[in-house]
Write a structure and sequence with these properties.
With 171 residues, this protein is an all-alpha fold. Helix content is 71%, strand content 0%.
């Protein structure tokens, strides 16, 4: 009889989350790079007669901007940059781990709100399209639950690391 592992292989899990984080960084760079195109077209079309004023550029810029913000927040959680503020005096390693666990539990609470409300938000937009470009609105609304799930994964991984420090395991 073979044993079923209780938890995934930590090194495999770490590689998967690191690969996902790298994918998010690439998507973030792509969103910012692509965002430049419709915004530039909008600006040039306002001041010159050479380029016609396109309607789709406004909605595409809005969609890309929302995704840029949400992906940036996901990367920020992964790198412990987004919700981390150093206001405590010099603490012991274990005390610092406890403070970070409490902070990440707050992130997890917010992530659960994003998942729950984001699913409802996406359901609301499922069969709707944008007014100007006729793009499906769920493509923009799904950013919220995706961000929430990603925050849960990244913050959960960080909480496990901090728990190892609390119990005295080597890192």
């Amino acid at each position: 009889m073979t044993e079923i592992p209780v938890a995934p292989n930590p090194s495999l899990w770490r590689r998967a989350t690191a690969a996902y984080a790298r994918l998010l960084e690439i998507l973030l760079a792509a969103c910012v790079g692509i965002l430049v195109v419709p915004v530039t077209l909008q600006i040039i079309s306002r001041y010159t007669p050479f380029i016609p004023s396109y309607i789709w550029t406004e909605e595409m810029a809005r969609f890309l901007f929302v995704w840029t913000i949400m992906i940036g927040a996901m990367v920020g959680i992964r790198e412990s940059q987004h919700f981390e503020v150093d206001v405590w005096p010099d603490l012991s390693r274990r005390s610092e781990a406890l403070v970070r666990i409490l902070a990440r539990l707050s992130v997890l609470a917010m992530a659960l709100v994003f998942v729950w409300a984001g699913i409802e938000f996406t359901r609301f937009a499922w069969n709707r399209t944008s007014e100007l470009a006729d793009l499906p609105l769920w493509l923009i609304h799904v950013a919220w639950p995706v961000a929430g799930v990603t925050w849960i994964v990244f913050a959960g991984e960080q909480i496990l690391d901090e728990m190892r420090i609390l119990v005295g395991a080597k890192q």
